Amino acid sequence: MRILHTSDWHIGRTFHGYSTLPAIAEVLGELAPIIGEHGIDVVIAAGDVFDTANPSGEAYRVLQATLEAILAAGAKVIVTSGNHDSPRRLGFAGPFTALAGLHLVTDPATVGRAVTIDDEHGPVDFYALPYLEPALVRAEPWTRPGVRSQHDVVRDAMEPIRDTAAARRDAGARSVVIAHTFVAGAESESSDSERPIVAGGVDSVPVGVLDGVDYVALGHIHGRATLAEGVRYSGAPLHYSFKEAGKPRGGWVVDLDAHGLAGVAWVDLPVPRPLAVLTDTFEGLLTDPAYQTHHDHWVSATYTDRSRRIDPMNQLRTRFPWCAEVRHQPSESAEQSRSVAQRVRGLTDEQIVANFLVEVRNGENPGADETMIMAEVIAEHRARGQRS
Ligand SMILES: [Mn+2]
Asked: Given this structure, which CATH class describes domain 2-268?
């Protein structure tokens, strides 16, 4: 069996105020040709199908066209819900669409129940874990009392799955888990375009919790990540943040043979409009010939001039029509990236105060009068300190 693992389609998301619907429709439109070319049997969408719980009619139209084309290309589809989706809305037609090979698994009550699809070697059991909010699933019979975290709920969901998978392995069954959650170790590949599951704290699942099945298709992180040979994030099919600039977009092609995982390969999806993150003086951004290549790209421009420009966006758009973000970061502020302790090490009190003024005034040094006043105040303070 050959599986295409995708996730985080986020249909309906905006990018710096622009609709991404035409771009995601184009990218998802490439799935059907990939299915034909690679002989894909099953397509997985591991959560965050939509960007919101209440998507627009246009967003539904993109999803409908995508799923219709996948089914027409001859693959089955297994979809689960992410934290952005409404499980009820996304899953409502699941009992009927399953008859057509479209499995919408979004109900926490069905955790542990497999969607079984046969190949020439026998059954493959797909266990989907929609995003499991601890407070909303603690009444489910498969949870232990007092579940509080992603670690707790995914651990509890996995225990019966692991037992069933082990028992059915003897009968020739292979098993795949689909989960929308944050697994520890994926941090380096993560991006700011996914909101954290728990604000103000890291709530992650140790990778070992997912042991015992042949492949784990993860969703939630927007960059691809490999946590183990058979435990991976595919990432989003479209760039949804400048933090993802240069990162590949696509999915994992997963092969199962009679014994389990036989191989994993990456397949690229097209990038309709690449991202460019440019930092230079304002003049440099507008005139350096090297940037001409970014004319049709999404551009995030940071200009390093000392003073702020009036309406920089409109000026930059004369050169970069798709400039989506402008930041002002005076070059002196590179100094700010060092810690305070590093910056003051070995300096006199006079130097520390002078540097502070330079920093808060975008590079303007203290004048002679100011230097004299500072010296007086510091001397006075020192004398007072010695007396007490
Ligand atoms: Mn998510």
From this structure: alpha beta
